[in-house]
Structure formats: C-alpha cells, structure tokens
Amino acid sequence: MPADLILRGATVHTVDAARSTAQAVAIEAGRIAAVGDMDAVDGLRGPATRVVDLEGAMVLPGFGDAHCHLGESGHASTLCSLDGSDGPDEHLRRIGAYREAHPERDWVVGSGWSMSDFPGGTPTAAALDAVVPDRPAVLTNRDYHGAWVNTRALELAGITAATPDPAGGRIERDEHGAPLGTLQEQAMHLVLDLAPAPTHADRVAGIRAAVAYYHRLGITASQDAKVDVEWQAAYEELARAGELGLRVRGALEWDVGRGEEQVAELVERRRAGTVGRLACGNVKFFHDGVVENRTAAMLDPYLDAGGRPTGEYGIDMYSRADLERFARLCDAEGFGVHIHTIGDRAVRESLDALEAAIRANGRRDARHQLAHVQFAHPDDLPRFRALGVIANVTPLWARLEAYVSEMTLPFVSERAGSGMYPFASIVRAGGALAFGSDWSVSTPDPRHQLATAVARRDPLGSAEEPLLPAERLDLGTAIAAHTIGAAHACSLEAVTGSIEPGKLADLVVLERDLFGLAPADFLDVRVLATLVEGEVVHAEPGSALAGGA
Ligand SMILES: [Zn+2]
C-alpha cells in the first residue's frame, strides 16, 4: 500500500533500542509504514501520497508526560491563570482584566503565583482588593500549598482575628492577629470549599483546553497522576466519543481516608475507564508531602535555621504495614502502583512495599513507579532496576533556584542534599527513567524539561551554577525518558514512544535538531508540527505541515 504521508529531509531520531537515526518516515492509516533513508521511504510513494520536505528539521516520537494533572490544570487554565506572568504587578493586572472580562462569574478563582513573587512569600488581601473589590477572589499558588484571598473571601468564610488556625494549616496574620490574605495548606480550604466547584461540562472543557495546549508543545501521551470519579467521567465522555486528542493513562486516586475495601471499586473503575485513548490502569498513592513545609519523609532529621538536627523526620501518610498491604492488593489485581515520594525515607519505604508485593504475588511486567524521587539514599538506587520500578521524575526541578538553595538544602542533612534528584545515578544503576512535568506545578514544555535535564540549570532561572553536575543526563537519554520512557510508564511502549514500523504515527517535528545546540537555545526551537496517529493536530502557521494532512 502506498503511504498517505511521507516526511523527508529531516533528522529522524527514532528512539528505537539502537537509538538509530533516519532521514524519512512514511505513514499509512495512522501508523508508521517505514522509516529509513530517503530512497527506501520514497518507495512507498503513490499518486495520492502527500510528500512534505522538512528541510533539516528534527523528527521525534511525540513526547510523553508521564506525570501531570492534565484535566485539573487544563481547567485552571480556563479560569484566572497567572501562568507565565512575571511578578506582582502583572499578576494584579491580569486578575483585574479577568474580572472585567467575566462579569457573569460570581467568584474570581485562579492559580499560578509563587511564594518568591512576594515579600515573605505572603501576598495580601489589600493588594487583591484593589483589583477585585466586589466579589470573592481566591488564587492558589503554583504548588497548591497556599492560597491568596481578598477581603470579600475572608468575610464569606468568616475568617477574623478570632479564627483559630485549622489542623494542618496556617492563616497568615498581622501583629494584631488579623488575617492578611494568605492561607497556607489546610487553611486554604476555609475559602476554597466555598468557591464554585467545576461542573462536568467545565471538566470536559478543561481537558479539551489541556489537550490543545499539549498538542502545541508536541506531547502525544500523558499520565494524569490523580484521577477521581468526577474527572474519570469527563475523560470517559471524551474517550467514548473519540474526542480525546491524546492518549491518557489514568492513575486512580487511592482514598487515604479509606482502606482495602476500595480495591474492588478501583477494579470496576479501571474496566469502565479503559475506552478509546483512555486507560485507567494505575493507582496513585501519596506517601509523603514536600520539603518546603517539612512534610517529606526523610531518613535523617530536618535541620533548624542554625543547621542543628531537629527531631522531625517528616510525615507518613500510611504505616509501613498499610502501604505494604495496599500495594500488594493493587499489584495482585494487575494495577501499576504509582507512589508520590519526595523524601529518601518515602522512597525506601515505597520500594520496600513494592518488593514485598512482588515477593507475595510473583514478578510480572508491572509498571510500578515512584514519582518525583527528590532524595534517594545511595543504597536504594540499585533497587529501581532490581525491582523493575520506574523513576518518574520532573527534570525541571533539578536546578539551584531559591526553593532549592534557600528553602530546601539548608534544612536537610548534607548526605541527603548530596543526592538530590539522582537521575544519572539511577540510569547508571540500570533503572528506568520517565519524565513527567507535574503540570501545573511546572511548565509541561518538553524543551524546557530537556534543557534543564542536560544542564542541571534552568535556562530561564537566575542561578548560574548547575545543581550536582554529576547528575546531568546526555541529551539522548533525556529524550528517551521523555518519549519511550514515558510511554513505558503509561504501558504504551508497544504502540507509541518510538518511531518504528507498525507503531502509531505519534510524532513531533521541531524546527532544528537539538543535538548540537546549547541547552539554553532549546527554548527558541519552534514546535513546527505534532501528529497523533498520523493526523496533524498542530502545525505552526506557514510551516511545511500547515494546511491539513
Ligand atoms: Zn503530581
């Protein structure tokens, strides 16, 4: 059969097992028909074949985002989003503009500021009142550990100087105890619980917005790392209608407030949630929190401001026995177990639980994975390979910005700090690596992730120094983690993640070959086109693939 589409004149990085390169790809009925040199692929040319000369562009398998919050973040992008906003003045200008553009909304709900934007990390209600005086406003920060609220919101929630801090939360106050306008952790919910919840239609629209954004970035597969019943319903609706624009692996949220009785429900939800491009085959556990508020579970005690050990080791969401039992039950049902692990103790205990599950149930081709792996003890690094556990990491976090150099490293032991984000060490120990952005905690832009993975510094950041340069990845390894590695974490490597005959034609075309460029220049390389199953879902205006396939 002649091909529908031939892409030629490019450097095609196939990311096959041999990491081979080619010059051309032929696509037929949504799949790769051939990949190789120009002559070989030209043999599939027929009278109706569209032939596109890419003039030295780079063709890669479509990127995979192995850990993100696709639906929620897409929904947030349809509200008052501060994504890409640069500091308090622009934040306020954007919030004011959103209020004016949406007179029909009773609340201004948004997200995307960061603690480093404000003195002391705490924005004020007074500042927000200047642009939203008449309606309640609540904006969560980028990592969802704090919320900025205005006076109307404080009034509605009844928060005054007399309101005690809720368990697990803090109301930032002035010297008289009056609320200032920043609510930390659980205190956020005093206001967030009053704000309008997204409707089913809002969720569906949120997923559509996220998919369109991912297409522009060259992403063709993803894992939503926390899917509850409502989000699953929205994904299912799109998947059933054939309108889910990329492949989604759903990690079903384990309800920490309940026990093993939920396993049967998860099995049923997997059955219903495996339709079209959706497959809900993983279960998500949170084993610890984050370092910045000392909830990450560490092997060594946290240090105080003077560098002296405290008695604090962070928190555990589960006892060791519970985590072992739940992991064993999920493994026995054939789920991939996906565990949020920031601290080195969380990593160790999670590996212990997965090891016990494998011992009890026997070894199978499971896709168990630890998300984030900010710290890992050297003794635990070989265990990723030994147990077949995937390190599902966000390379953009491995940089010496303020939240690492000022909010993290001074408060953990030197030993822990010397093994931060040990990506190259895991690879050297034979472990499998997958890249996930954790969007909207971080940008999902693969160019930005790749640049930081190879440089261990953020090309847009302020730090000149790399973070632990021995943990730099070579570009080929980083690309593999963002394509075939992510596909593997999503149980999709048999159908996508590399450019090989028979696989789905999920591809991205970048303006130039990243190999040979300085990492800082990756960000300037345009995403010319994205193909999902051979269909052009994004094309830069004026580029060779613009104008339909
Ligand atoms: Zn996450």
Keywords, please?
549 residues; alpha/beta; Urease, subunit C, domain 1; Diaminopimelate Epimerase, Chain A, domain 1; TIM Barrel; 3 domains; 9-stranded mixed β-sheet; 8-stranded mixed β-sheet; 29% helix; globular; binds zinc ion
Summary, kept brief:
This protein has 549 residues and is an alpha/beta fold. The chain has three domains: 5-62 and 502-539, Roll (Urease, subunit C, domain 1), CATH 2.30.40.10; 107-192, Diaminopimelate Epimerase, Chain A, domain 1; 200-489, TIM Barrel (Alpha-Beta Barrel), CATH 3.20.20.
Describe this structure in words.
The protein is of the alpha/beta class. It has three domains: 5-62 and 502-539, Urease, subunit C, domain 1, CATH 2.30.40.10; 107-192, Diaminopimelate Epimerase, Chain A, domain 1; 200-489, TIM Barrel, CATH 3.20.20. The protein contains 18 helices and 23 strands. Strands 6, 13, 14, 15, 16, 17, 18, 19 and 20 form a nine-stranded mixed beta sheet that branches. A hairpin with a 7-residue loop joins strand 1 (5-13) and strand 2 (21-28). Helix 2 (70-77) packs across helix 7 (200-217) and helix 16 (446-455) packs antiparallel against helix 17. 52% of the residues are buried. Zinc ion binds at residues 67, 69, 225, 438. Residues 67, 69, 225, 438 line the site of zinc ion.
